[in-house]
């Protein structure tokens, strides 16, 4: 934590969470430091912009905001932050492989690499591309960590928490974070209670229907669980990503698609098997 503070002048919330597991934080911090601050073929501002592109694919506003600040601190052009369309063509050419690595990595082929290395005005050197791809995959993974641990924005970021008491607000302004969080917490508890009630009813029906197989009961339970998870609280039914994130994403509809082979006339996508 001291190293993080001395290097960056702050200890971000990711480091605070990982600090619960010091050995893991130490390994992570060394990796992060090598990727972003040590010698390498890519200039510092481009490294942070690639991090923004990767995090934006997963709509991770925490990481996008963090690296927008870092991008400016190392001398990045503020115009690039208007969106991917304002970045140099060389960086924009990463969009396709960023999209695939984020959502369907088994579709990446050697042709994607060849296209980026092809000689021309906006071509990548092999060393640059290797560092860019490591950054992309690193931040795709880190976005999952941020979502999985529920990491909050930094104090100075939009939606960030601080130690100051909430300021008074008019009827037209949004409610404070504490009140909103409290409401969402209550709704989450209500959803859990509903799910538990459904599970109880399923167990009771199992006793009544002695003829039902275990497989049938498991199928019913999975259906109930899925339906429960699909019901969103009233105040967060709008899942559309913020425009500040969408501007770094091309083809936002592209996402994960199940690649499991099933008997079908359609040709199944190739699968990457590791054993």
TrEMBL record:
The reply on keyword 4Fe-4S is: no
- The reply to whether Oxidoreductase figures as a keyword in the UniProt entry is yes
Q: Name one GO biological process term.
A: positive regulation of macroautophagy
Q: Which GO terms describe its cellular component?
A: cytoplasm; nucleus
Q: What reaction gets catalysed by this protein?
A: a hydroperoxide + L-cysteinyl-[protein] = S-hydroxy-L-cysteinyl-[protein] + an alcohol
Q: What is its main location?
A: cytoplasm
InterPro entries linked to this entry? AhpD-like (IPR029032), Sestrin (IPR006730)
Q: Where is this protein found? A: Cytoplasm
A Pfam family that the UniProt record links to this protein: PA26
Q: Which domain of life is it from?
A: Eukaryota
Kindly state which keywords UniProt assigns to this record, in alphabetical order: Cytoplasm, Oxidoreductase
The protein's matches in SUPFAM superfamilies, at most eight in alphabetical order, are given as:
AhpD-like
Its Gene Ontology molecular function terms?
Answer: L-leucine binding; oxidoreductase activity, acting on peroxide as acceptor
Region (Disordered), start-end ranges:
156-184
UniProt lists compositionally biased (Low complexity) regions at 169-179
Q: Which family does it belong to?
A: Belongs to the sestrin family.
Q: What is this protein called?
A: SESN2 protein
Q: Which organism is it from?
A: Nyctibius bracteatus (Rufous potoo)
């Amino acid at each position: 934590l001291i190293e993080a503070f001395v290097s960056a002048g702050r200890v971000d919330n990711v480091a605070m969470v990982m600090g619960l597991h010091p050995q893991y934080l130490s390994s992570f911090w060394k990796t992060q430091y090598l990727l972003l601050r040590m010698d390498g073929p890519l200039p510092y501002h481009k490294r942070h912009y690639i991090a923004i592109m990767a995090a934006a694919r997963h709509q991770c506003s925490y990481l996008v905001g963090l690296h927008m600040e870092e991008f400016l601190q190392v001398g990045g052009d503020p115009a690039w932050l208007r969106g991917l369309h304002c970045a140099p063509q060389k960086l924009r050419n990463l969009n396709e492989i960023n999209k695939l690595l984020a959502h369907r990595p088994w579709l990446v082929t050697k042709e994607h690499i060849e296209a980026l290395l092809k000689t021309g005005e906006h071509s990548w050197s092999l060393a640059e591309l290797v560092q860019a791809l490591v950054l992309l995959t690193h931040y795709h993974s880190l976005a999952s960590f941020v979502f999985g641990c529920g990491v909050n924005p930094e104090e100075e970021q939009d939606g960030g928490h601080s130690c100051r008491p909430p300021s008074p607000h008019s009827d037209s302004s949004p409610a404070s974070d504490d009140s909103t969080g409290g409401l969402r917490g209550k709704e989450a508890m209500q959803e859990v209670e509903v799910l538990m009630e459904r599970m109880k009813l399923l167990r009771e029906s199992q006793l009544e229907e002695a003829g039902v197989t275990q497989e049938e009961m498991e199928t019913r339970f999975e259906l109930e669980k899925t339906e429960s998870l699909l019901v969103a609280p009233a105040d967060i039914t709008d899942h559309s990503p913020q425009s500040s994130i969408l501007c770094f994403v091309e083809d936002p509809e592209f996402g994960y698609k199940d690649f499991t082979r099933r008997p079908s006339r359609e040709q199944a996508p190739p699968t990457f098997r590791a054993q």
